[in-house]
Specification:
The protein is 40% helix and 19% strand. The protein has 159 residues and is an alpha/beta fold. The protein has a single domain, classed as P-loop containing nucleotide triphosphate hydrolases (Rossmann fold), CATH 3.40.50. A six-stranded parallel β-sheet has the order 3-2-4-5-1-6, with helices on both faces. It is globular, with a radius of gyration of 15 Å. The N and C termini lie far apart (44 Å). The model has no long low-confidence stretch (mean pLDDT 89).
Length: 159
């Protein structure tokens, strides 16, 4: 039985999250549901996402309004618990198939920060429903995720 696809947008250029959001909008235009879980980012203005519900839902489990890189070491330790809660929610979504597209925005950074391992992400992806497609974004690509991804796009600024 074939599973949903895994796409990865990575690199130092801007536009990875926007590309993932564009896919969520494309799914919504087809009457499909998308869930976006953001990691390591500063608080975004989620008012415009409310207008896209129920087709597109945005979740952010971190409590700080600042980006992860701007936090003190103590604040980072506290946020790691919230990030793990976000990853557990992602596992639930993947296992239940409650959406057609799951975007794990900046989840590759969670691996870079050592909060979870590449194997943890791969295990979560293996448990996905056959109908759930996944997009991962982040700065750096790991070899294991590269191998299991159906599509990998490197975003690189040219100017």
């Amino acid at each position: 039985m074939e599973k949903g696809t895994i796409q990865v947008y990575y690199g130092c250029g801007q536009g990875k999250s926007a590309a993932a959001l564009g896919n969520a909008v494309r799914y919504a235009s087809q009457g499909k549901k998308s869930i976006i879980i953001q990691f390591l980012k500063s608080e975004t203005n989620s008012d415009y996402f409310e207008k896209l519900e129920p087709e597109i839902k945005l979740f952010r489990f971190e409590r700080s309004k600042d980006g992860f890189e701007d936090l003190t070491e103590q604040q980072k330790q506290e946020e790691k618990i919230n990030i793990l809660n976000g990853l557990n929610y992602a596992k639930k979504v993947l296992g239940t198939g409650e959406c057609d597209l799951l975007v794990l925005d900046e989840v590759l950074g969670v691996v870079d920060e050592g909060i979870v391992s590449e194997e943890d992400i791969m295990e979560a992806l293996e448990g996905r429903s056959i109908n759930t497609n996944v997009i991962l974004t982040g700065l750096n690509m790991s070899s294991g995720l590269f191998e299991i991804a159906d599509s990998v796009l490197k975003v690189k600024p040219e100017k």
